[in-house]
Amino acid sequence: MSQPEPDINEVVRSIAEETDTPTETVSRMYADTLADYRHDARVFDYVPLFAAKKVRDQLRHSSNRKH
Q: What NCBIfam families has UniProt attached to this entry (predicted)?
């Protein structure tokens, strides 16, 4: 049985708050990452989770480089 799709707005808002990044930036990154993962995926159940993790990690990494 497949996993329910997460609320994209909630995911984006959460990442934006955690990383102190504008919502528009996070939304664009999440959409691009999600599209990349879906393009290559055979199983789609966890694609949104992986996309959110990648965006969160990228933003945290870029934030650490600024300090």
A: MSMEG_6209_Nter
Q: For residue 15, is it within any domain?
A: yes
Q: Is residue 34 part of a domain?
A: yes
Which amino acid, 38?
R
List C-alpha distances in Å: 6 to 30, 46, 47, 62, 67: 12, 10, 10, 25, 32
In 3D, which of 23, 28, 29, 27 has the Cα closest to residue 61? Answer: 29
